[in-house]
Structure to design on (525 residues):
C-alpha cells in the first residue's frame, strides 16, 4: 500500500465538519480582507457615496430593504433553478445523442456554435418579441447559456474513455448506447461536472440580463431601479446578494462533485470531435459530405425562419440580403474583421493564461481551492456588460479596455477546465510518484495528460464566450470592429449590416473552434 494511499485513509478518518469549517474559515477571512480593502479605498479616495459606497453603507442599505429584497431574491433564484435545470437536462440528452450518432454530431455542431456566438444582447430582444416579456423568456435565455457548456463538456467526457474497456465491450458485441451508459458515462463524470461548474454562473448571468430587459420583478429589475434612482448602496447590496446566490448554486454543484468519487487508473484517450473518439467511427467520404452540407442547411433554416416570423424584416433579414451587403461592402468587413481578430487574440490569450493559472492553483493547492472558487464564481456571476462602465472610467475608449473585457469573458471556462482536469491524477499514480520522488514538473506533465478532455472543453467554450466578449467590448470600449457593425441594428435599424457582421463573427468563432478541436483530436499520449 502506497504512502499517499495511507495518508488519504488517515485524512478520511478526520472529522468532515472540521475540514468544511477550515475551508469556510479561509473563505470568510479572504472576504473580510477584501471588504477591509474596499472600505479603505472608499474612505481614502474621498469619492461620494453615490459613486463608491463603503461596505457599511451597503450593509445598512441591505438591512433597511431586507423585506422587499427577499421577495425579489426568491423570484430570481426560482428562475435560475428552472433555467439551469432545463439547460442541463437538454444539454446532457443532446450530448448523449451526439455521442451515439457521429452523423448528428457533424450536423449539430455548426448550429450550436451559431446560436451561441449570436450575442445575448441581440438574441434577447428577438426572444422577447417571439414569446413576450414572460417567465418562459427568462428561463429560456438562462437555459440557452447553460445548454452549450454542458453539451460540449459532457460530449468531450463521453468521447474520452479508457481504450481497454471499450475494446472489451466491443469484442462481445455490446451496442454503442450500452457502452456509453456503462463505460463512457462513469468516465465522463469529471468532464460533466466541469461543464456544470462553467454553466452555473452563466444561468445567473442569463437571468439577470433577461430581467434587465424583460421583467418587473427580480434582482436584475431592482438593480436597474436602484441605478436609475442613484441609490448606489442599494445597487451594491443587490450585487452582493447576486454573488451570494451564484455562490450557493455553485456550491451545490461542487458538493455533488465531491460526493462522487472516480478512479482514473486506466489510460485516457483524447476526444475526437469530428471523428468519433471513444465511440468509434470512421472519417469517411460520407462524413465529409455531411459536414459540408450542414452550412447550406443552416442557410435554408435561416431563410425559412425569416419568411415565417411576422415582421421579420425589422430584425431578421434574409440570407440573400445579407449576402448582397457582404459583397457590396467587402472592404468594410475585412477591415472590421482584422480589428476584431486582434482584439480577440489579445484578450483570449490574457484570459486563457489567467484562467489556467487560477485553475492550476485550485487543483494543486487544496488549501486555496475554496478561496479561488469563491472569487471566480463571484466575479463570473456578474454580467460582463456590467464591467464596461468601470473600464470606460479607468481606461477610456482604448485597446487595453477591450482586451480586459474580452479576457473577463474568457478566463472562467479555462479556469474550470484546468481545475477539474489537473485534479484527475489517479491515486495509484500519485502513490508511485511519491515513492520514487518524481520531479514536480514531470508530475505536472502527467497531470496535463489526464486534464486534456476537461481542459480542451474549457478552451473551446472560452472561444465562444470570447467572441461574444469581443462584441460587447467593441460596443462600449472600442470604436472599431465587427461589434460596432452589429450595434448598427440597435442604433439605425440596419439588420442587414448587423447580421453580415454576425456571419463574419460566426466564421471567426467556428474556424477557431474547429482548429482547437482538430488539435485536441490529434493529441496522443
Amino acid at each position: 500500500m502506497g504512502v499517499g494511499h495511507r495518508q488519504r485513509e488517515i485524512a478520511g478518518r478526520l472529522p468532515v465538519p472540521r475540514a468544511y469549517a477550515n475551508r469556510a474559515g479561509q473563505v470568510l477571512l479572504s472576504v473580510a480582507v477584501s471588504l477591509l480593502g474596499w472600505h479603505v479605498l472608499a474612505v481614502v479616495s474621498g469619492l461620494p457615496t453615490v459613486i463608491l459606497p463603503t461596505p457599511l453603507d451597503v450593509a445598512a442599505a441591505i438591512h433597511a430593504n431586507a423585506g422587499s429584497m427577499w421577495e425579489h431574491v426568491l423570484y430570481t433564484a426560482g428562475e435560475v433553478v428552472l433555467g439551469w435545470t432545463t439547460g442541463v437536462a437538454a444539454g446532457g440528452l443532446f450530448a448523449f445523442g451526439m455521442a451515439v450518432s457521429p452523423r448528428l454530431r457533424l450536423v449539430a455542431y455548426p448550429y450550436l456554435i451559431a446560436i451561441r456566438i449570436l450575442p445575448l444582447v441581440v438574441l434577447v430582444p428577438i426572444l422577447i418579441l417571439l414569446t413576450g416579456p414572460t417567465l418562459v423568456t427568462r428561463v429560456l435565455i438562462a437555459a440557452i447559456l447553460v445548454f452549450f457548456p454542458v453539451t460540449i463538456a459532457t460530449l468531450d467526457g463521453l468521447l474520452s474513455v479508457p481504450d481497454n474497456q471499450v475494446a472489451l465491450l466491443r469484442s462481445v458485441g455490446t451496442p454503442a448506447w450500452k457502452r456509453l451508459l456503462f463505460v463512457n458515462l462513469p468516465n465522463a463524470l469529471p468532464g460533466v461536472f466541469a461543464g456544470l461548474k462553467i454553466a452555473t454562473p452563466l444561468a445567473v448571468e442569463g437571468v439577470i440580463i433577461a430581467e434587465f430587459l424583460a421583467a418587473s420583478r427580480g434582482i436584475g429589475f431592482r438593480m436597474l431601479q436602484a441605478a436609475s434612482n442613484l441609490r448606489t448602496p442599494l445597487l451594491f447590496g443587490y450585487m452582493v446578494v447576486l454573488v451570494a446566490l451564484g455562490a450557493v448554486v455553485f456550491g451545490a454543484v461542487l458538493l455533488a462533485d465531491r460526493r462522487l468519487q472516480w478512479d482514473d487508473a486506466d489510460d485516457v484517450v483524447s476526444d475526437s470531435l469530428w471523428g468519433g473518439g471513444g465511440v468509434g467511427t470512421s472519417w469517411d467520404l460520407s462524413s465529409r459530405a455531411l459536414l459540408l452540407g450542414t452550412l447550406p442547411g443552416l442557410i435554408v433554416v435561416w431563410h425559412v425562419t425569416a419568411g415565417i416570423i411576422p415582421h421579420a424584416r425589422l430584425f431578421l433579414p434574409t440570407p440573400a440580403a445579407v449576402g448582397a451587403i457582404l459583397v457590396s461592402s467587402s472592404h468594410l468587413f475585412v477591415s472590421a474583421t482584422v480589428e476584431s481578430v486582434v482584439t480577440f487574440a489579445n484578450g483570449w490569450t490574457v484570459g486563457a493564461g489567467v484562467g489556467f493559472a487560477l485553475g492550476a492553483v485550485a487543483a494543486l493547492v487544496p488549501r486555496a481551492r475554496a478561496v479561488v472558487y469563491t472569487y471566480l464564481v463571484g466575479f463570473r456571476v456578474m454580467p460582463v456588460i456590467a464591467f464596461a462602465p468601470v473600464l470606460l472610467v479607468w481606461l477610456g475608449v482604448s485597446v487595453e479596455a477591450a482586451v480586459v473585457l474580452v479576457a473577463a469573458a474568457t478566463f472562467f471556462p479555462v479556469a474550470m477546465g484546468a481545475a477539474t482536469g489537473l485534479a484527475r491524477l489517479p491515486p495509484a499514480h500519485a502513490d508511485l510518484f511519491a515513492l520514487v520522488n518524481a520531479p514536480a514538473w514531470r508530475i505536472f506533465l502527467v497531470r496535463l495528460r489526464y486534464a486534456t478532455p476537461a481542459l480542451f472543453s474549457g478552451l473551446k467554450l472560452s472561444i465562444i464566450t470570447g467572441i461574444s466578449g469581443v462584441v460587447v467590448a467593441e460596443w462600449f470600449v472600442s470604436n472599431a470592429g465587427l461589434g460596432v457593425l452589429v450595434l448598427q441594428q440597435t442604433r439605425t435599424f440596419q439588420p442587414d449590416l448587423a447580421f453580415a457582421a454576425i456571419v463574419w463573427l460566426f466564421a471567426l468563432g467556428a474556424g477557431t473552434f474547429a482548429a482547437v478541436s482538430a488539435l485536441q483530436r490529434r493529441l496522443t499520449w
